[in-house]
Amino acid sequence: MIEVTINPGPIKLTVPAGTLLLEVLKQAGVMIATSCGGKGSCGKCKVIVSSPKFIPDTLNASEKELLSEEEIKKGFHLACQCHLNQNSTITVPPFSLIREDNSKIKDKVKSCLVNDEFKPAVSVKKYFLKINPPSLQDQRSDWTRIKDELNKQSNENNQTWKIPPAILGSIPQLLKDNDFKITIVLYKDKVITVEAGDTRREMYGVAFDIGTTTIAGYLLDLVIFKEVAVDACTNPQFKYGAEVISRIDFARKEVKNRQKMQQELIETLNQMIFSLSAKAGIDFTRIYFAVLVGNTCMHHFLWSLSVENLALSPYIPVITDSIMDDSRDLPNFCLIPYAKVYSAPNVSAYIGGDVISDLIDIVIWQRKGITLLVDLGTNGEIVLSKDGKIWACSAAAGPAFEGARISSGMRASEGAIDRIRITPDKVDYRVIGQTKASGICGSGIVDLMASLLKLQIIKPDGRLVNQEECPLGISQNIIERIIRGKRGNKFLVVSAEESATGNPIFFTQQDIREVQLAKGAVTAGIRILLEQARIKPEEIEETFLAGAFGNVLDTTSALEIGLIPAIPSKKIYSIGNAAGEGAEKLLLSEEMRNIAEHLSQKINYMELSAHHDFQRIFAESLFFNPMV
Amino acid sequence: MIEVTINPGPIKLTVPAGTLLLEVLKQAGVMIATSCGGKGSCGKCKVIVSSPKFIPDTLNASEKELLSEEEIKKGFHLACQCHLNQNSTITVPPFSLIREDNSKIKDKVKSCLVNDEFKPAVSVKKYFLKINPPSLQDQRSDWTRIKDELNKQSNENNQTWKIPPAILGSIPQLLKDNDFKITIVLYKDKVITVEAGDTRREMYGVAFDIGTTTIAGYLLDLVIFKEVAVDACTNPQFKYGAEVISRIDFARKEVKNRQKMQQELIETLNQMIFSLSAKAGIDFTRIYFAVLVGNTCMHHFLWSLSVENLALSPYIPVITDSIMDDSRDLPNFCLIPYAKVYSAPNVSAYIGGDVISDLIDIVIWQRKGITLLVDLGTNGEIVLSKDGKIWACSAAAGPAFEGARISSGMRASEGAIDRIRITPDKVDYRVIGQTKASGICGSGIVDLMASLLKLQIIKPDGRLVNQEECPLGISQNIIERIIRGKRGNKFLVVSAEESATGNPIFFTQQDIREVQLAKGAVTAGIRILLEQARIKPEEIEETFLAGAFGNVLDTTSALEIGLIPAIPSKKIYSIGNAAGEGAEKLLLSEEMRNIAEHLSQKINYMELSAHHDFQRIFAESLFFNPMV
Ligand code: FES
Ligand code: FES
Question: Which CDD domains match (chains A, B) (predicted)?
Answer without folding.
Answer: fer2 (cd00207)
